[in-house]
Design brief:
single chain; 39% helix; tt1808, chain A; alpha+beta; 10 helices
């Protein structure tokens, strides 16, 4: 990641230095857009990764219209890029990109850029229909490299459709929530005043007249709270004092009781009938990730002394994968064989495959890198033909 950030730093300096000289679309492509694609692992010199002037039979699109760049993974187009000159306003060009996007089912990301600003779109609202608003906007003239680590999600060796969809959804929600919070803080409307008064247990009837009377006080309180938080963050060093476990638990229980809320802290779960079966935090996280990736399927977890499985419809013989955390390095074994094509996919994703077909899975979130194989496992487990007993058995 540090090497990636260092390359972004150099690219940001490059954009700010030569951007104003990119008066045409072609110059912008060569000087600003293709260098970033190279940083992301989509080499412009490799036509199996970057195909310029991509043409296809797009319904409603003129035969002369072409996508500036189609980015490929595993022989399939996964991202379209519409390029404009450095000085272009990108707002009016999104409909053209959406026509390409909506007509190609395999493409999940649409990008429009002038080399300085990059707008990323997907289809969160309606499947296969590009959203009107981007889920991510990056401006190289306003951001620092350390703030652009999100771009790593689009690297060729890290490009996974479901993971990007989850990332896009998360990013969109955060931006929406951030906008609402900023509006509440800046405007301090009556609804926000009512909420603060309720949380403060004000022993008065919260009618409109009373709320309007205390509205200036709430606004002052918000401004002071923000100021105190900023000052504290800038001036006070962070001091972490070690406490005995008993004191930590006591403090947590007191906080929960006073706030009247329940906080769920992840922890290992010991089987009530067999203390040798311990469902670790990593195993629980694996089940959570896979369940979020395939929310419409019934996926249950089963733990044994030897391995942890995720089952399809709670059937013991229909396991998507078996996860073994008892080794020095945890491994995962999928129900489908790791043939040459799947091995290439795993290698490209940065996962190490053993001779016996098992894969090292050092962190639960690395399962995102094998989403395609997880889909193969799900398709295999959901096909009854794969589990019929043979006539000779």
């Amino acid at each position: 990641m540090q090497d990636f950030i260092n390359r972004l730093k150099l690219h940001i300096e490059h954009v700010n230095r030569v951007g104003q000289h990119c008066a045409t679309e072609e110059t912008t492509k060569q000087a600003l857009i293709l260098p970033l694609l190279d940083i992301l692992g989509f080499s412009p010199y490799d036509p199996t990764k970057v195909l310029a002037e991509f043409a296809a039979d797009f319904p409603g699109v003129k035969a002369t219209e072409r996508v500036d760049y189609a980015l490929y993974c595993n022989g399939q187009p996964v991202m379209f890029i519409e390029a404009k000159s450095y000085t272009s306003n990108l707002t009016n060009h999104a409909p053209q990109l959406s026509r390409y996007f909506n007509s190609t089912l395999g493409v999940t990301i649409g990008v429009i850029t002038n080399g300085r600003e990059w707008r990323f779109f997907t289809d969160l609202i309606n499947p296969n229909v590009m959203d009107e608003k981007p889920f991510l906007v990056i401006d190289f003239t306003k951001h620092k490299a350390e703030e652009l680590t999100q771009l790593a999600e689009f690297k060729h060796d890290n490009f996974h459709v479901e993971k990007l969809r989850y990332f896009a959804e998360e990013n969109q929600y955060i931006q929406q929530f951030k906008a609402v919070i900023k509006k509440c803080i800046n405007e301090v409307d009556i609804d926000f005043v009512r909420y603060v008064a309720q949380q403060a247990n004000i022993s008065r009837q919260l009618n409109t007249k009373f709320l309007e009377n205390i509205q200036p006080f709430v606004k002052q309180a918000v401004e002071k709270a923000i100021s105190d938080t900023v000052v504290k963050g800038l001036s006070a060093p962070t001091i972490i004092t070690a406490q005995p476990i008993e004191q930590q638990h006591e403090a947590l229980e007191t906080f929960n009781r006073d706030a009247e809320i329940q906080i769920n802290i992840p922890q290992d779960i010991i089987h009530p009938d067999n203390e040798r079966i311990i469902t670790t935090i990593d195993e629980q996280e694996l089940h959570r990730i896979v369940s979020e990736l395939f929310p419409t399927h019934e996926l249950t977890a089963k733990d044994t002394e030897s391995y942890y499985s995720v089952l399809y419809q709670n059937k013991n013989n229909r396991w998507l994968f078996r996860y073994d955390v008892n080794r020095k390095r945890p491994t995962v074994q999928f129900i489908v064989p790791i043939d040459d094509q799947r091995r290439i996919e795993l290698d490209r994703a940065g996962l190490e495959v053993l001779n016996n077909g098992q894969i090292y899975l050092d962190k639960p979130e690395h399962i995102y890198r094998a989403v395609g194989i997880l889909k193969d496992c799900l398709n295999f487990c959901s096909n009854d033909e794969n589990f019929k007993r043979s006539v000779n058995s």
